[in-house]
Amino acid sequence: MRSITKTLLAVTALCGSLAATTAGAQTLRVAHVDPDDWTGSKKGAAAQIFKNIVESESDMTVEIFPAGALGNEDELVAQVQDNLTQVALISGAMSKVCPAASVLDIPYTFSSATIAWDVLDGPFGDELAQHCLEETGLRTLAYGETGFRNFTNNTREIKSPADMAGLKFRVQPIPLYVEMVKGLGGEPTPIAWTELPNALSTGVVDGQENPVGVIYNNGLHKLQKYMTLDGHVYAADFIVISDEFYDMLEPAQQEVIRKAARVAGTMGRAIQQWNTAEGVGKAQAEGMQVYAPTADEIAAFADKAQPAVVEYLRGELGDDAEWIDRLQQAVADATE
């Protein structure tokens, strides 16, 4: 039934898109998988402000489909490529269609969110966006933020890679994350997101890793005693538009779309930063022990995790492995 509903929504979106084009008007369907509540959802906040700006500064109309109403991220990517959905806010799904984007998941690459923003909003981010456009037909309008991912567990405080030995960590079913946890000495266990709470409750795994906002807002802090703010992966959001649709717009409309997306990305980042700071305090107040590693301790984590992941990515990316070096240089420049 859910599959049929999604199909009907997609067909409705296509018919509406054709009708809008015929009538000379433009309607954009914007989709994401997060909740619609702008106060707790970075994609929800980004989509809402995107709509407000586009509709207030042009004759275009924006319809928002939140919370996976049109499908999961992989399905949204396919819809935007086919111009069934015009705009999507996605994160992990981008690297599946544009492998070069996976370099952003190299652990301990970004020392802070501001360094990540400088890199993504600078020449490197522009070049990656152009590369992914050529590979996929998805035009990246701006970058948002899903946030830094951190380890939690229910066994002991983690201050060094040695503390991870023997612990089973739920990871996304993505090889890069498997290699990262292996490199750190833990035991990676790929488990679907929907199965995570049960896996933690029953002891199938000892811990997991996610951004603070995800950990707190989904009650994982109630199932885990310890959190280490190691920020091993900075997860970016991609605000993408169908290039086919974008090319049909008038220059003035394109300018409004670009502006709205950039503000939306900034809004998403701000909400994510708010959720992180607030989530840490709330988790501590509710009994979770939170540890913030020192710079030297983070370096020890990086020394273990980065080589394994970089070696894996070089093998997977082939000719696109140059993006690893380009990212590392961009981070070095931004840090300097």
Automatic annotation (TrEMBL):
Primary localisation category: periplasm
Domain of life: Bacteria
Keyword Calcium attributed: no
Keyword Oxidoreductase: no
Signal peptide (residue range): 1-25
Keyword annotations: Periplasm, Signal, Transport
Subcellular localization, as worded in the UniProt entry: Periplasm
Family under the similarity heading: Belongs to the bacterial solute-binding protein 7 family.
Identification of the protein by name: TRAP transporter substrate-binding protein DctP
